[in-house]
Specification:
The protein is α+β, with helices and mostly antiparallel strands. Helix content is 52%, strand content 14%. Helix 5 links the parallel strand 1 and strand 2.
Length: 176
């Protein structure tokens, strides 16, 4: 990732103004997104400045449910800068971060350090629901599967996503 490509990418709030599919849901979840104080303290304790690119598309239900909390974390933490790129317009980044080496699943959050060296990535969804989707969830019709995924996100409120993401940042910082 070069600095200019990162700087040219949209902020989450600018991206939010461009969404067309599920616009009301995107905006509602962005308004309600919250990060607890303990999670913010954990993020603030990670040394360095972290640049994060989120690869997404507006139709993605997992992105709708996770990107607002990632943005809230970045806004409040002070050491994380989040930008958004569209998956379909950035095949080089997407193809370097395939789920299970084959799937262009989104969202994907790519973590870069202050020198814009890639240090890790997260996505497309928290491990517990990803595991369920790939096993038990695949036995259901898509409508029923997606209903269960939405229930998971409603109960979890982004906590697991943030925990997994912060673990990536902590590991990257500890490796320095």
């Amino acid at each position: 990732m070069n600095r200019n490509r990162f700087r040219d990418a949209s902020t989450f709030s600018a991206y939010l103004e461009t969404v067309e599919k599920n616009r009301d849901l995107w905006h509602a979840l962005a308004r309600r997104a919250a990060v607890d104080e303990a999670t913010l303290e954990r993020a603030r304790a990670i040394p360095g400045l972290w640049h994060v690119i989120a690869l997404t598309e507006d139709w993605c239900g997992d992105a709708i449910n996770t990107l607002p909390v990632f943005d809230r974390l970045a806004e409040a933490a002070g050491n994380i800068e989040l930008r958004v790129l569209l998956r379909d317009e950035n095949p080089d980044l997407m193809d370097a971060h395939l789920t299970n080496g084959t799937s262009r699943s989104i969202p994907i959050l790519i973590v870069y350090d202050e020198a814009f060296r890639e240090r890790g990535w997260w996505g497309p969804r928290p491990a517990p629901i990803q595991e369920w989707v790939m096993t038990e969830g695949m036995k259901l019709e898509p409508t029923d599967r997606y209903r269960e995924v939405r229930r998971y996100y409603a109960r979890d409120k982004g906590r697991t996503s943030l925990d997994e993401f912060l673990s990536i940042l902590e590991s990257a910082a500890a490796a320095d």
